[in-house]
Amino acid sequence: MSPESTAPERELPWDRPKQRDSERFPHLILAWSLDEPERVGEAIPVTRPLCLGRGEALGDDPAPRITPKRMRPAETRDCGAIVNARVSRLHLTVEPEGDSGVRLLSHGRAPMRINGRSTSEGVAREGDIVELHNAAVFFVVMRPETLQPLRAAGAPDFAFGRADPFGITGESPTAWALRDALAFAAATDRHVLLAGESGVGKELAARSIHGLSSRRSSKMVARNAATVPETLVDAELFGNSKNYPNPGMPERDGLIGEAHMSTLFLDEVGELPESSQVHLLRVLDTDGEYQRLGDSKARRSSFRLVAATNRALDSLKHDFLARFTHRVTIPGLGDRREDIPLLLGELLGRIAQDNPQLADRFFERRRGERAEPKIAPDFVVRLLRHPFTHHVRELDRILWLAIGSAEDDYIGVTEAVDAELGQAADIGSEATEIGREDLIQALRDHGRSPTRIAKALGVKNRYVLHRLLKKHGLTPGALDEGGTE
Fold it and tell me: What pLDDT does residue 481 have?
């Protein structure tokens, strides 16, 4: 036997991320609790058989009793026994089912529903919703058992489930990965392009980058590029000298001059005409050289550009796009649904702060102080299922609709909210019925058309299709090159 054949295989650093990505387990994320709303966002990893119930372990528990955990990159903290009075002493036994499911058996007084269907035993998978009637709501996700440490962001210094110092709310791995990417971009002081759909929070991301950077002592300069008339773009960006182009015209620094030693945030930068994108190339290089309109001499501005767009990146001029060292995609709510209940609480908290009458009506009082909001569980369930197209902005609008149409002193699914949300697809049942081979065949037959693929499979909308494809590691067009993934 040769020496090479007996040598132990050494783990190489670039293999570690692949191993970590494969080590994901189902988690039950607490999305609503009648008696313990402050625990929303806590997670129960299902890596082995266990039981769930109120209070400490019982002598006849059929499996080890586990308590919910607060998972953060810096630590995973056990949060103690459940004290929800509507949860029985032994309410559920759960165990892993295959690679991505959780088998649940109900023993408690509060009936169990999986994706709205009453049952005493069933299997829930990623994206499914488990309700304990008027007691608790859980959302099923796939996660590592512990979150990976942050590479660039500092240790969290804000309360669990609350907005961070720059307004970003979320405890999902996706939310923490976003914070880490923004912190890394902030530290390098290079130009950044933020991509993402309308309403995902690109301005909050820009403020995070500025607030974490060495330029944070100066006020960030912000402008929506779509609001600048095409004929005035250069004047707005570069400014003009006195009396140019007309006598009596005051001298202006322009956005680039104003942002010297600070950050310039240009929202909807994809709306800039290509000619203006070309004019920005020189100033975006390292020396920051530019000329005001009507000036004969060059100026320099030490600024960092953070631009945002909801367009495809290839819609930008290629040499303009090349100036952005960092490109960060801001995830939508479909990529971090477990954060929706936390976002809901954060938005309600802001509303209560600005509207004392609404706070008195829709919030509990504890020892004379405002406490948790009064939210019906079906409202949370419907939001978890809703295929958001405008993300946090849409969530805020639906919340105001629920408040404005409420007839009682709690926030629930009114007729107006029901009409707005429509009949959301039962994601879990369809995900169970359609297998990977069915998806592969539909991809072969219909290529890159999500609409035709969804119709062929009989699913209700493209959102359900997206969840199915993601579950099986597939994308529309994935078979174009002859592969399956």
Answer: 39
Strand pairing partners for 105? 93, 121
Q: Residue 395 phi/psi, 5° resolution?
A: -60, -45
Q: Where are the alpha helices (DSSP H) in 102-215?
A: 173-188, 202-212
The residues facing 222 across adjacent strands are: 265
Q: How far apart are the first and last CA of the chain?
A: 38
pLDDT at residue 68 in the model: 96
Give, in order, the Cα–Cα distances in Å from 81 to each of 25, 28, 89, 93, 95. 22, 15, 11, 16, 19
Name the token pair of 343.
């976002």
What integer best gives the mean pLDDT of the chain? 88
Q: Where are the domains of the chain?
A: 25-143, 173-331, 334-421, 427-471
Per-residue DSSP letters for 348-416? HHHHHHH-HHHHHHHEEEETTEEEEE-B-HHHHHHHHH---SSHHHHHHHHHHHHHHH-SSSSB---HH
Contact 264, 256 (CB under 8 A): yes
Assign domain 173-331 to its CATH architecture.
3-Layer(aba) Sandwich (3.40)
Query: The domain 334-421: what is its CATH number?
Result: 1.10.8.60
Helix, strand or coil, per DSSP, at residue 61: coil
